[in-house]
Structure formats: structure tokens, C-alpha cells
Write a structure and sequence with these properties.
The complex is a heterotetramer, with two copies of chain A and two copies of chain C. By secondary structure, chain A is an alpha/beta fold. Chain A contains six helices and eleven strands. In chain A, strands 1, 2, 3, 4, 8, 9, 10 and 11 form an eight-stranded mixed β-sheet that branches. Chain A has a three-stranded antiparallel β-sheet with strand order 5-7-6. In chain A, strand 8 (153-162) and strand 9 (167-168) form a beta hairpin. Chain C is of the alpha/beta class.
Amino acid sequence: MRLPDKTTTLEEAVAGIGDGAVVMVGGFGVPGTPFTLIRELVRQGPKNLTVIKNDANETGMGVDHLLASGQVARLITTHIGLNPRAIELMNAGKIEVEFNPQGILAERIRAGGAGLGGILTDIAEDTELARGKQRVEIDAKRFLVETALRADVALIHADRADTFGNLDYVATARNFNPLMAMAAPRVIAEAERVLALGELPPDDVHTPGPFVDHVVELGALTEEYAVVRR
Amino acid sequence: MRLPDKTTTLEEAVAGIGDGAVVMVGGFGVPGTPFTLIRELVRQGPKNLTVIKNDANETGMGVDHLLASGQVARLITTHIGLNPRAIELMNAGKIEVEFNPQGILAERIRAGGAGLGGILTDIAEDTELARGKQRVEIDAKRFLVETALRADVALIHADRADTFGNLDYVATARNFNPLMAMAAPRVIAEAERVLALGELPPDDVHTPGPFVDHVVELGALTEEYAVVRR
Amino acid sequence: MSDARTRMVARAAREIEPGMVVNLGIGLPTKVINHLASDFPVCLHTENGLSGIGPTLPPDRADRNLIDAGGAYVSTVPGSAFFDSATSFALVRSGRLDLTMLGAFEVSQTGDLANWKIPGKFSPGAGGGIELAQKARRVAVLTTQTDRAGNPKLKAACDLPITARACVARVFTEMAVIDIAPAGFSLVELAEGVSAGEVAEATGAPLILPDGDIPTF
Amino acid sequence: MSDARTRMVARAAREIEPGMVVNLGIGLPTKVINHLASDFPVCLHTENGLSGIGPTLPPDRADRNLIDAGGAYVSTVPGSAFFDSATSFALVRSGRLDLTMLGAFEVSQTGDLANWKIPGKFSPGAGGGIELAQKARRVAVLTTQTDRAGNPKLKAACDLPITARACVARVFTEMAVIDIAPAGFSLVELAEGVSAGEVAEATGAPLILPDGDIPTF
């Protein structure tokens, strides 16, 4: 037995994402954002996307390119304060934005990745974010039903991958990546380095290969990866 | 700033677990079972315990000592087929046993560790394990409510710990340990090696130190750790 | 293992397609691993937290921390990964398990599976069986055609508590390969030297025969 | 930063007890780190996935993959750990965060906090603020006593959308330390040179004064 090879080209990895697709995008600010996969998604041009990402990056970076090209219809997120374009599009009614408490977004994605229907939480009960949500009582305590989130495709940035799609992340570039890498039937990982099988220690793998469909090795990193402008 | 030291003795780590306590115990079969902490719990002798563990180990090993000493009133588990004493005590009505699907037990513990009220799942809907459980509908699909599990104390076996309580596990000794290490207000970890701060690479930590309260270094391993009798 | 059982396990191994992620249940299914070529592209999963199982090891070469869900000492292959029990079943429930092969006490003609409990006799708990049966993309059963008393294990309906409903796609026995078709049990292949009539007789519900020749294994 | 603000931040830093796990929110709270001694036993957490924050780094020594939740380049200390966003908030929601210090638009006399939205003006999303406010074992607020227009931020009730109800235990301003007591805002300490009357005037609800001398900071 040997583990299958999932390496492919950038173009093929991203090919066939259709109009109306739901796309999860890893990253929290710059670290862990799959800038190269996003650029290719802009180049290939599917429209009317629902994007699920912690934030909207900053002007001229990452998800902002998808907003600028008009490919995004809906954004499920936690905080977009660093992207004036996202706020402007939201206020003008040109994109729909759904805000989640950050850890609840993480849990909803994880629930999708874990094949659950949702989770029960008391977070945000007293706030406007709880409006319209279903309640369940357990032992006389009331919980909000937060539904699981899955996507058609997840775009992941890893530090290292092996050819089977085992991934690891570095420092705070981990964030939403391992959660999203479980929550779509098609998971595309860009990696700063792609290693031969056996070069990632099995105890240190953050995302096991069975969750991953395509592995793309990055060449020299573009400027986006290195810049935090604030 | 430096991270606090949580190392202590075996006796002090386990001290004060009261009668009626709910105790989570890591491990799947032999790997990851905290045999030394269990022995100390037997020695200190609290009664009427609820034990949450994947399995009941085998005769003369691990949880079986707690069963033999009559300290267990209730067992929340997935499979006890390798422990005849557990089955006998269950059939005689001397312990109460609650069976869970294995991955649902894992998720219920994780939900407790994540501060959630529970999870929604379609697992076991058609089986007797679903009896009496609450249902929730999402988009016309029916889910079981599986409530979160927390314990008063969690007994964890790690391969390596540092003095702050960062833990890592090896091979299939990981299993339920990192989940249980989140799900109790008092988490006691035995470790085969205790390292100085900075010796565990921060990207490779499996259980972050803030979840852990006490760290006990194991001396020479007893025979239980090395035997798989089947 | 008898020749008939070895042939059955070898046949079941051919069910695994290149690139699949596969979980092999305790008992007969685990033996399938012995029939996979060393260069066959497949990822074997075990629910206690490993993707990329390698060959079973003898005790003197075993790692005390490296077992499968049945407690057998196993090994890894290049590219293996370890993970916790929540992640392991996340993989199962979210559709990443292409195939599982399980043992059975009973299989119904609608694909219900009973393999975890015999009331009053055997109640050790379901372990991970319910999730494997309910959520693997394809569930195959490896079992003897009849129990020790000679009663068919393939029945119109399960009498024992079920593990999951309508989950089994195909059954491998020492006598035959039988699909769960919309109309019921459907004979696909025969073991060498076994007749369709013998299989029908050892099946506890109508057995649909294919048109034309029946392949053998 | 003005002297008054520096004193306020230094005073807030004394709120941290040895052994605590602490999350410092964006803005003023982050500055608290500069007032912690290098041998002080504490674990600083940031919700984007790090326990054990070290000193803030200048851009030329920054690691592009190592930021805090506010986007500032940070460093690690010996014994740091990285984790994903689900684990990070598991730590918050399950009671492992002993203390969080947050900024505020408004704090009510019952401890309600509003710090995420100004309808029609500022709606960037709540980020991780709701969970920090709702689930940290102790929530302290660092804020100016009044907004730029001179309106009190400490009020009988919040007018803005709230982040969490009845969560704030103590408020640090450039003028005073004020507790949320069962009966309302309760003066604990005064900044040097500030009188209790001045604080009461800059507070939008009754201010309870302690018996006897009021300590200063």
C-alpha cells in the first residue's frame, strides 16, 4: 500500500469552481491566507460566490481582489473593519454580509467538517446576532442553535504539505485553515513547500491527508504574503 | 513574563477528588491510558465515581482496578467487550453503563471542552441508543441533541509535557486525551518526560498549557503500559 | 483460515479502488490488508486515530503505542498521520471514508445491518460501528453465509438491534458476492464450486439471480 | 500616550495576578503588556491562536506569520503554543481565561458592555469580542472616562448594541478605578490629582463613594 499523489497545477486545482459556489478561505489577516489560490480564482472568474472567511483582508490583498472584481455576492465573516471596500459594498447593499462571533464561526465550520448538524451555545444570546435563531433547552438552560457550515470548496494555505495532502501550518497562520480543510468535499491546499511522503512526522501533521484533494506547491511568495500594513 | 510551573507530585496531583466525582480517563485500550494516575486514584479511594472512558481496559489493567475496588458507580463509554468484570457488574446492576457511539462520545467531550451546550447529529437515529433523546429540526432534517460532557477532573497520559503543561501525545496514544484535557476544570497530566519551557516546539503542541492544571513526571513505566494482551 | 474464507477475503480486497480511503473492521475485514499489493494506492484508516495503516506487525516488533481499533499492533507507511478521536470520526461522518468493510450478525434485504448486540448475551457497546455503517460512502459486509447453527445471516429483516438502516451495499461470504439491490438480495458472483441454488437455500430471503452466466471467484 | 493614560495602563497591569491566563484586547489593553515584569508568571492569550505572547516586536524583527488578533507583530516566550481558532475559543468559553481587558464605547451600571457597533457609523463585526466579554472569568475595561465630545462612557444603560450583558467587573479610566457593584458604579481608586467629585461629574449614573480615604494611583 502506498498513499496516492494529489499534487497538481494551480490552474487545475482551482478549475471548475462554478458560479454561485460557496468558498471557504483560510487565514486571519495575512497569516494563513491563500493569496495565490485567491488570485487564480479571480483569474478564472466564477461569479456570485458566497465567501466564508474570518475577515475581508485589507485593500489590495486576498479577498479584496474578489470583492473588487465583483465576484462576491455574500460574505460570512466575523470582522471586516480593515477593508473599507467590504464595508462600502455592504452599506450599499451590493454584498450581503453575515457576522458571526469569531469562535462560533470557527465551531460552525468545524461542525460542518465533523459531519454534525450544528452546535448549541449560549454565546451572543443577548445580542442582535442571536435574532431569529432557534433555541433548545437542556436542563432548563436555553441554548442557541448554530447550524453547521460547509462549502463547495475550501482554499487552504499550509506551510508544508506532503504529496498525499498531509498539511502543517506555522505560528498564527494556522487559525481557520485546519477547520475549513475538513468542511468541504473539495479541499485545495497551497503549500510553501511540498515534501515527499514520510518527510512530515505523523505526530506533527495538523490536517490529515484524507481531508485534502489537491496540493499545489507555491513558487516564490508574492508581496502579499509578507506585508502587514498597520 | 514567564509561564507558571505546574509540576507536582503524584499524590498531590490526585489529592482531593471527592466521592461522587465525575472523572474522565484518556486512552483507547492500552495506548494513552494514564495507568499511574488511576493507581493513585485507587490508593486514595474516592467512591461512587462516574468514569468517562472509551473502554474499560482489560482485566487487571487501568480502569479495571477502579471496578475491582468498587469505586465506580457509573461508566460512560463506547465498548467494554474486553473487560469481563465490567460486563458482569453491568449485568448484575452493580454499575450503570451508558453506551455512546464512539465518535459521538468524542464530540460530546469536545463540546464540553469547547464550552458548548451540545451538538446536533443524525448518528444512531434509527438505533436504541437514540431512545429518549431530544430532537431538533434544521431545514426539515431531524437531528438528535447530544449534550456536552464535562467532568470534575480529567486524567491524561502524555508522551511529553513541559512545566507549563503543554502536552504532546505519540501515535495512537492520542485518542481521547486532548479532548478530555479540555473538558474539566481540573486536568491532571502524567507524562513520560517533563521538559523545560521551550523544549516543546510551539507548532507541535497537541494540548496547550492553559488547559492543564497539574503535571506529574512518570518514573520507570509499570508493566501495564507495555502490554497488549490479545 | 479455510481456503473458502481466504478466497472470500481476496475477492473482497478487489473491491478496493485506487485512491480510496478505507476502514477495515475487526475480524475478517482486517485480513483484507494481506491481499493489497505494496504499491497499491490506498489509504487505510483506523478509528482510534491513524490514516495510513501499514502491515500488521508481530508482537516482538510492535510499538506499544501503535494499535488499530481492534487492538492489533499495526505499522505506518510513509505519509501516515495520527489524530485524536474527534478528528478521526469527523473524517468518517463528513464523507471522507470511501469504503468500510464490516462484520455482521445479520443483514436485511433492505441493507439494514445488525452487528453490535445480542440482547441477553452480548452487549459490549457499539464502539465506532454505527458511524462507520451510517456514514461511509460504501459499506461492504464480510461474513459467513450462515451462523454456527446453520441459520442464514442474510434475512428479510433483522431480528437483532440494528447498527444502521439501509447502509449495506454488498455482502461477501464464503459462498457468494451478493448486492443489496432495490428489489432485495441480488447474486453477483459465486465461489468456485458453489451453485446458485445452494446460495439461495442458505439465504433467509428471496435471492435474485442475474441473467446469463454468473462469474466465479 | 499622555501621562494620565500611562498611569491608567500601569494601574490596570497590577490587576493581573500571578498564574493567570489573560487576553488583552485591541487598543489600550494591549499596552498593559509593557508593564509586566519579565519574570512575572502569566500566560497571555490571543484569540487568533497563541498562548504565551512575548514582547511586541518592531517590523524589522517581525515574523510574517506571527501576529496578535489586532494584527500587531508579536513574539513568543519559552513554552508558547499555537492552535487553531476553534481551540482558541474553546479555551475562552470553557473557563480557562482568568481575565480579559477590553476597550469600550459604553459600560452600564449593571456591567453591560457595548464595544462593537455604532449603528449607521461603525459596523465592522464583533470579531471575538462577544466571547471574551461573556466568558472570561473576569472582565475589566480600559477606556477614557468620556468620549471625544465629553459624554460619559459609563452610563445608567447602554444605548449602543451590547456586546454582552452584566459582564464587566471593573473599569480603569484615566480618572479612576470603578467597580460594577451590585448597587452600581462604585469608586475604588482615584488618579493622582483627580477628585471624587470630578469623577462623579464625568460618570453618567450615580457613583457610590467608599467610606474613608480613597487610594490613588
